[in-house]
Amino acid sequence: MKKRFIYSAIMALAVATGCIKEQGEEAYLITRNDVRTKGADTIPKTIVTGEGAFMYGEAAADTIVANTFDVIINNKNKVETLDCFLKLYSKYQKLDLDRNAITDVGYVYSHTNQSPTVDGTNCVVMSNKKYMKTSEVDSTKDEFSFTGECHNLDFNTAYYIRSFVVSTKGDTIYNYKTLRVSTNLPHNVWFQRKDAPTTFGGRQNCFCCTYKDDVYVYGGKAGSKFYSDLWKYDKVNDTWTQLATCPSSANGAYNQTEKANGAMFAYPCQAHDDVLLYMVGGEIQGGEPVNTTVYYSTKSGKYCQEGDHPNYGKEIDARDENGKIIYYYKKGDETLYTTDGTISGAVKIGATVSISNGVAGIYPKVNNADNPLGGLKGCVAFTLEFADKTEYYIAYGKNSKGVSPQIFRYNVEDDGAMPHYSISSDGKSLNQTTEEGFPWMEVQTSQKDRATEGLYQPICQICDKRVIVGTGESSLPGVGYSKKFYLITSTSKSQDEVNVEEVTSAPDEFDARANAASFYLNYSKDGENFEKLYVGTGRKGVEGASDPDLLNDLWAYDFMTGEWLKCADCSNIYREGAVGFSITRNDDLFSTEYEENARGIFSFGRGRVVGEAEFKYRNDTWEYLP
Question: Which pTM value belongs to this model?
């Protein structure tokens, strides 16, 4: 009887002070300065519902640990579903656990109800004891914490969410402060695509170029193993296809086809309705730089065939070693050659020769000098647009003398088209004095107020009609690895002169590096245009070291603002020597439902996973959504 009286009195006091609401009424917020009978503790803010509620407590604000999503890729390698979810953390304290054990915890959320409750309209409950961090509530303590996840949420939607706990008496205590969170369309994220075929194998420092919807990757190395196979990646269908392996002596011209760490470009040969892929320079086993150029015809599917060369069969003027045109005179049955003067009674005719050269010129012979510059590795290739044509360039890299600051233009018209001849002493015959033309011509660079800087293993990216080159080992003394970026543009003066100017410096947080990867994205999102160059991964340490101190960060240079932005790390793999390129997808959930189709790709390279010590040559492919 006495116990029943005490309980009734306490309940009456609770109702009178507003601690308890009748069952079925809305949850409410208590703010009290009442003093408990046990001491001078102030009753904290809390929300209590349910019949017989007798639970006080304080819930610190819930915390969002992660607002993210999972990508589910089906067996056709398309994004099939996206699970948008929240990870949360909650802590309760000052609970009267002496008389009220906790039986359940959870979260309740809604995108319309700003004060979500378990039985509320348009509310969803996630209640499960497994989310409690403590395996068992200790009744001698007055606080505990737990975590939880809310899955399958809608994108671009505002959600109201808060935690709750349930006592043995049936009380439900809610966090007094509701979280409001917006689940935006995923952006600035990486997810893994299908690996390249196992026959491709992991490798680094491949030659790589893009032409329309295809990406071409040639060669590369894995340790002491060097490759000469050529692969095509279809950016639309996300498939890899092996095209051919270059023979060790293509067309009898070369014995250095297994190589890595060079430059590559695609040349559309209109005369043959063909696209030729040029693999220039690079290094062979042992790290020796080479000066040979190999080309592949995408039409014939063969390397270095005479009939595929852009100038094969072309009739040109015969010239002497000084570049003068050679003429011949026909007098009866007699033919006489000369570079000037006339022969009485003879008809003057220009002497022409037919080009039978089937190989690209050795790279490069500076100013048509007899001695080549030597091999070049870690160089880059790019194109520049002029008023009437596209020109092709090779730049920078390292030769036997060190890092080169030079830029060379590939003169297609002169490739194989400049053999020199000498006239015999009797003037009746021509003798060829050189085997082939020299198409690689050094160009002049207009660079303001700075020393000319060459770069070894830089990134090179064509951004619309501009070219950005940056990072890499510097040719300037005392610099080491560079963190500068340069804009290369054409001039109106000549195809043999280009402008080079420094763009906004990367921030202090950006590590100077070499052998990084890059891609360029120009896209629209939510009615706003974006144009950015992305640069990531690379090496801070010594080339070839057992632990080269690799990176996995990603940075974006915003052409609209001229600023550098830190982006999401490139997965959990630190790597160097990867290939990077951009793609446009039109066949998955992002593009069909959210109109997001501009992506970046990093693949291959040498690297290691976070937490692992072993470095591996990789063939994995990662896709970046900006």
Answer: 0.75
Structure tokens at 74: 């089906």
E strand or H helix at 225: strand 225-226
* Residues 388 and 402: beta-carbon distance below 8 Å: no
Which residues, listed in sequence order, are joined to residue 110 by a DSSP beta bridge?
Answer: 160
Sign of the dihedral defined by the CA atoms of residues 39, 41, 43, 49, in that order: negative
pLDDT (tens digit per residue) in 319-337: 777 767 777 777 777 777 7
Note whether residue 165 is domain-resident.
yes
CATH, residue 17: 2.60.40.10
The C-alpha angle 158, 161, 162, rounded to 5 degrees, equals 160
Spatial neighbors of 401 by CB under 8 A, at least 6 apart, are 374
Whether 417 contacts 409, CB under 8 Å: no
Q: What is the pLDDT of residues 182-212, one digit of tens each?
A: 887 788 889 888 888 988 999 999 999 999 8
Q: Can you list the positions of beta strands (E) in 503-549? A: 517-525, 528-539
3-state secondary structure at position 68 = strand
Number of domains composing the chain: 1
Which residue reads 């439900």 in tokens? 172
Q: What is the pLDDT of residues 388-434, one digit of tens each?
A: 788 999 999 998 889 999 998 887 766 655 567 788 888 788 777 66
- Could you say which DSSP state residue 401 is in? T
Is position 554 within any domain? no
Cβ count near 499 (within 10 Å) = 16
Contact between residue 620 and residue 186 where contact means Cβ atoms under 8 Å apart:
no
For 182, the token pair is 């917006």
Residue 52 is part of which domain span? Answer: 2-183
Q: Which residues, 6 or more positions from 574, have their beta carbon under 8 angstroms from its beta carbon?
A: 537, 550, 551, 552, 607, 608, 610
User: What's the length of the chain?
Assistant: 626
47 domain residue, yes or no: yes
Determine, yes or no, domain membership for 175: yes
Rounded Cα–Cα distance for residues 601 and 579 (Å): 8
